[in-house]
């Protein structure tokens, strides 16, 4: 009965358990989980506290809902998530009752406009009518870790943004590109990138690009100016499909790139 045991352990994800506990800050910018030990799954219908939940069966789902987000942290740090990954409260992950595992979604705090991408790899929350349970790091980036809950909009990455949102004031910004009609799109024309580095030296940036090009021909140099100085971003993309982003992230991690960042521009 491992599935039922897993649900029983995860039922506690519904409440923001650590708002009163001291949290050790991390120096690094929060990243998406690396996916180690995880599997892709949708799951069978399951019951928690007398209520049935029916996981979405198609892997490539279009989802756009608003509701209440909570967060969970230290009490679950290091434990297995519903798809077998390890929960890290300092990475950008989330629990959802029905989305396929894993799924990349954009979460927007409707009270302040902050927005970011998280990896749904867990089940929950099972309290009241909450929509999504975010990791501590995600709640902190969206600036509701102190109050515990927030009104949010949750969107899969491959559906259109149906209403305008304020500009995000962290790394990920709207809009989201619409999904192509085919399950796998042709040449990518979206505005979602995977960034591996930002260099002040063009030579160093070109060196990293040259190392990546044999395996990732979509690698490009993207210069930008800040404080009257030119920097060079090394990015892969653009992509306009969630599965392409997931596959790229996993390939990069297997190649030893531990901190790829998903960027929407």
Which key terms come to mind for this protein?
265 residues; alpha+beta; Barwin-like endoglucanases; Alpha-Beta Plaits; six-stranded mixed β-barrel; four-stranded antiparallel sheet; 4 helices; globular; disordered N terminus
Describe this structure in words.
The structure is a single chain. The chain is α+β, with helices and mostly antiparallel strands and 265 residues long. The chain folds into two domains: 13-156, Barwin-like endoglucanases (Beta Barrel); 192-264, Sporulation related repeat (Alpha-Beta Plaits, 2-Layer Sandwich). 15% of the residues lie in helices and 28% in strands. It contains four helices and twelve strands. It has helices spanning 2-10, 136-141, 202-212, 242-254; strands at residues 46-48, 51-53, 64-72, 93-95, 103-109, 115-122, 132-135, 150-156, 192-199, 219-226, 229-239, 261-264. The longest helix is centred in the C-terminal third of the chain and has 13 residues, at 242-254. The radius of gyration is 18 Å and the shape is globular. The termini are far apart. The relative contact order is 0.16. Mean pLDDT is 78; it is low at 1-27 and 159-189. Lytic transglycosylase with a strong preference for naked glycan strands that lack stem peptides. This is Endolytic peptidoglycan transglycosylase RlpA. Keywords: Cell wall biogenesis/degradation, Lyase, Signal.
């Amino acid at each position: 009965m491992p599935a039922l045991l897993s649900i029983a352990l995860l039922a506690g994800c519904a409440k923001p358990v650590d708002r009163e506990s001291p949290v050790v800050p991390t120096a690094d910018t929060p990243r998406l989980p690396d996916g180690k030990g995880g599997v892709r799954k949708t799951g069978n219908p399951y019951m928690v506290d007398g209520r049935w939940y029916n996981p979405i069966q198609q892997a490539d789902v279009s989802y756009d809902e608003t509701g209440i987000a909570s967060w969970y942290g230290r009490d679950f740090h290091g434990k297995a998530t519903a798809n077998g990954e390890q929960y890290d409260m300092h990475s950008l992950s989330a629990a959802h009752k029905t989305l396929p595992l894993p799924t990349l979604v954009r979460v927007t705090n409707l009270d302040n406009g902050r927005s970011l991408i998280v990896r749904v790899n867990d089940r929950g929350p099972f309290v009241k009518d909450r929509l999504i349970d975010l990791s501590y790091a995600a709640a902190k980036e969206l600036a509701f870790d102190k109050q515990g809950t927030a009104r949010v909009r949750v969107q899969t990455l491959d559906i259109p943004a149906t209403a305008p949102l304020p500009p995000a004031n962290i790394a990920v910004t709207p809009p989201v590109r619409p999904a192509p009609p085919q399950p796998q799109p042709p040449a990518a024309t979206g505005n979602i990138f995977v960034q591996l580095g930002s260099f002040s030296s063009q030579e160093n940036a070109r060196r990293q690009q040259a190392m990546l090009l044999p395996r990732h021909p979509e690698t490009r140099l993207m210069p930008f100016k800040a404080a009257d100085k030119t920097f060079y971003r090394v990015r892969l993309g653009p992509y306009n499909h969630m599965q392409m982003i997931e596959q790229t992230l996993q390939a990069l991690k297997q190649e030893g790139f531990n901190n790829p960042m998903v960027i929407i521009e």
